[in-house]
Design a protein that fits this description.
Elements (H helix, E strand, L loop, with lengths): L2 E7 L3 E8 L5 E4 L3 H14 L2 E8 L6 H19 L8 E8 L2 E8 L5 E6 L5 E2 L2 E2 L2 H13 L2 E6 L5 H19 L15
Parallel strand pairs: 3-4, 7-10
Antiparallel strand pairs: 1-2, 2-4, 5-6, 6-10, 8-9
Helix pairs in contact: 1-4, 2-3
Keywords: Amino-acid biosynthesis, Cytoplasm, Histidine biosynthesis, Lyase
Family: Belongs to the imidazoleglycerol-phosphate dehydratase family.
GO molecular function, one term: imidazoleglycerol-phosphate dehydratase activity
Length: 191
């Protein structure tokens, strides 16, 4: 079973996370409603099981909570993927969300990188600072050691734009992590 369990505690956050790449229960609580909504969409569209409890210094803002959840989720993805053999490795998806169109391409490569493009017309949605979308995905990419390209080139509603990006990431990740009959998909033989 491709699973991981991570507990990370700092002076700013305390996060417990259980992840299954192959589905399972979903129970998500970060204290940031919109972020919970996005993580739930990620799980539903990515076919992931996720149990997540995050307690953070929300009296400051959502920054530490969102970024640290990205760190822990990235660490869990890395652990659950193991040596990355027997998976498709690459995935991509376009997801429309009303007037917005999200795109994601990723490589489960062992080489962390993020290219992010999205200018959000509203600075916040609920208690979520929209600029934290990039910080979250940077933390995921760096800690999961994946190459991640995310883009929402247009839209009028920040909620729709961010949701399109989360769902595009979910579908791309689901495809890339799909189990195959082969070994490591690399001419080098290792990732």
């Amino acid at each position: 079973m491709r699973t991981a369990e991570i507990h990370r505690k700092t002076h700013e956050t305390d996060i417990e996370l259980r992840l299954s790449l192959d589905g399972g229960s979903r129970d998500i609580s970060t204290g940031v409603g919109f972020f919970d909504h996005m993580l739930t969409a990620l799980c539903v569209h990515g076919g992931l099981g996720l149990e997540l409890r995050a307690r953070g210094d929300l009296e400051v803002d959502c920054h530490h909570t969102v970024e640290d959840v990205g760190i822990v989720l990235g660490q869990a993805l890395k652990e659950a993927l193991g040596d990355r053999s027997g998976i498709k490795r690459y995935g991509h998806a376009f997801i429309p969300m009303d007037e917005a169109l999200g795109f994601c391409a990723l490589d489960i490569s062992g080489r962390p990188f993020l290219v992010f493009e999205g200018d959000f017309p509203q600075a916040v949605t609920g208690a979520f600072d929209c600029c934290m979308t990039e910080e979250f995905f940077r933390a995921v990419a760096m800690n999961a050691e994946i190459t991640l390209h995310l883009r929402c080139g247009y839209g009028k509603n920040s909620h729709h734009m961010i949701e399109a990006m989360f769902k595009a990431f979910a579908h791309a990740l689901k495809d890339a992590a799909e189990v195959t009959e082969g070994g490591v998909l690399s001419s080098k033989g290792v990732l």
